[in-house]
Amino acid sequence: MTTLLVLLLLAIGVYLLAVLENWIANGRFQLTAPAYSAIALLGRESVIPRKPDLLFFEVGPVLLLIAALLAAAVIPLSPDLIIADLATGALFLNAALAYILVALIMAGWGPNGAYAMIGGWRFLGQLVAYAMLIVMPITAVAMRAESLVTTDIVFSQAGLWNIVYQPLGFALFFIAAMGLAFLPPFDLPTAKGELAGGVEAEYSGVRLAIFRLGRMVLIITLAGATATFYLGGWQGPLLPDWIWSAIKIMLVTAAMLMVGKYVPRIRETHLLAWCWKFGIPLALLNIFIVGILIVVIP
Questions:
Q1: What is the pLDDT of residues 54-96, one digit of tens each?
Q2: In a designed cystine with 156, which of 38, 145, 233, 257 is the match (CB 3.0 to 4.6 A)?
Q3: Which among 216, 231, 121, 90 has a CA at the least distance from the CA of 174?
Q4: How far apart are CA 173 and CA 199, in angstroms?
Q5: What interhelical angle do 205-230 and 2-26 show, nearest 10?
Q6: Is 272 exposed, middle or buried (0-12, 13-18, 19+ CB in 10 A)?
Q7: Domain of 250, in residue numbers
Q8: Total domain count for the chain?
Q9: Stated pTM of the model
């Protein structure tokens, strides 16, 4: 029952994300727009390239959706509203997100097209650069909570949210989450102006619908992780726990979309240089600061 309820809330969140994305991109608030777009997409023919690696071509979009759903399984919407409250939940989240890379490499390689392949290898370069910007902030969060259980991490923020306790970690995790979801300005794997869609260029019909659904679930999952690790999760006055979680997740999602609207796309060389030269040292500094705070202020 809990699993079905979480999946239902996730589906509602994905739909609201589609409405919000259309509103921010086109300036039109239409509640029915995502439904019409989905129907139109599902009604199109699913074209297969001439010489694909059929296994990779078919599995890529499905694996993207599965990886995003697995990561969502350890995100708590309330103390009791979580699919899997694992003892290593934060570690499981990171492990599940690692398969996003595999999915995009498959989606880039499978169609046997130049644009798609470049998009897939671009994402590989991105992940190698900012993967530690996901792991290291999670490490600092777990240090304060003295636990990898995601519900324990939320409970540890009862007196002070981590966005205040470790703002540097929040900034790094937020940026890395946008990169992992390949949202603008980190949308190098798709890069419509350069690669004509990149990893999704050769997909159409049902396959493209699954790919885009997987990406939307991924965005909601990463927004949920941000709310869990840094915004106190379900904590808040008056309203039910799960409503506070939903509000925070949608606010983080809106912030991610708004950043992409106003910041131009970053060149891949600049992104890699900034992650290696500045991001990782700052993530190490964040761990050091949190360690000092834990010792000085138990």
A1: 888 888 899 999 999 999 999 999 888 899 888 888 999 989 9
A2: 145
A3: 231
A4: 24
A5: 100
A6: middle
A7: 2-296
A8: 1
A9: 0.92
